[in-house]
Amino acid sequence: MILSIGLYAIEWGVPFAVGFVLLILVHECGHAVVLRREGIPAGAPVFIPFLGAVIAMRGMPRDAYVEAKVGLGGPVLGSLAAWAVLWAGHAAGSPMLVNIGHAGVLVNLFNLVPVAPLDGGRIAGAFSRRVWLWGYAAGVVALVLTRSPLLLVVLVAGLFTLWRRWNHPVPGYHDIPPRSRLAVGLAYAALVLALAFTLPVGLTVHPDLRS
Questions:
Q1: Among 9, 68, 186, 197, which one is most buried in terms of CB atoms within 10 A?
Q2: Is 209 inside a domain boundary?
Q3: How many domains does the chain have?
Q4: Can you tell me the distance from the alpha carbon of 57 to that of 117, in angstroms, rounded to the nearest whole number?
Q5: What's the distance, Cα to Cα, between the start and end of the chain in Å?
């Protein structure tokens, strides 16, 4: 975590680096809360500079519905924190807070792309595994347009996970009630739309993150 702050600070300054990393921490805490409620042991968040952070599950969810709830926990809590910082930035007239909040919104929205190992890939498996194919296709198009090294890493990891989970599914893992599928799908769509709606809010702020 300290290393991530130091490396981000070189590029964007200490205040932004601290705020950004704290928002990532809140996101990971969202996963941890749900894991604890579901009785799944978990490790501490591990920060990977410029790739975000991960929290390791030391046990398997009993089905895709539980996995989806774990996947949603991070973006839900992370998005609430990002929106709070964004609102505080506008209320206080602070470009720094607005930029931090905007970055948090962007990170949570990116994590909802339905490609494993992102949270969106875990969530989509509960309501339609076919969404993985659409998500991966969209990710490839985005990679061609942006040439993002981070997106390349995600897609390479996602390709292996997609092949393994599609061809070797755990028996009964995806056999969850239609009501649960609908609930996950609606929650996922609502969060994606809410984040997409608020994403442009911070785009007009002065780009100097050190101010």
A1: 68
A2: no
A3: 1
A4: 13
A5: 23
The tens digit of pLDDT for each residue in 31-70 reads 999 999 999 988 888 888 877 888 888 778 888 899 999 9
* Six token digits for residue 98: 């607005």
Q: Please report whether residue 110 resides in a domain.
A: yes
Q: Does the residue 54 lie in any domain?
A: yes
Nearest Cα residue to 192 out of 101, 114, 89 = 114
CA-CA distances (angstroms) from residue 188 to 108, 126, 196?
12, 11, 12
Q: Are 117 and 62 in contact (CB under 8 A)?
A: no
**CA 51 vs CA 15, 21, 111, 125, 172: distances in Å:** 19, 11, 11, 23, 33
CA–CA separation, 92 vs 95, rounded Å?
A: 9
Over 80: is that where the pLDDT of 5 sits? yes
123: closest CA among 168, 35, 183? 183
Domain membership flag for residue 210: no
Question: How far is Cα 203 from Cα 211, in angstroms, rounded to an integer?
Answer: 16
For residue 59, which amino acid is it? G
Percent of the chain topping pLDDT 90: 49
**Residue range of the domain that includes 47:** 2-202
Residue pair 136/142 in contact by the 8 Å Cβ criterion: no
The set of long-range contacts for 41-45, using a CB threshold of 8 Å and a minimum separation of 24, is 45/1
Task: Find tokens 């300054």 and name the residue.
Answer: 13
Q: Which of 110, 92, 88 is nearest to 101 (CA)?
A: 88
75-84 tens-digit pLDDT: 999 999 999 9
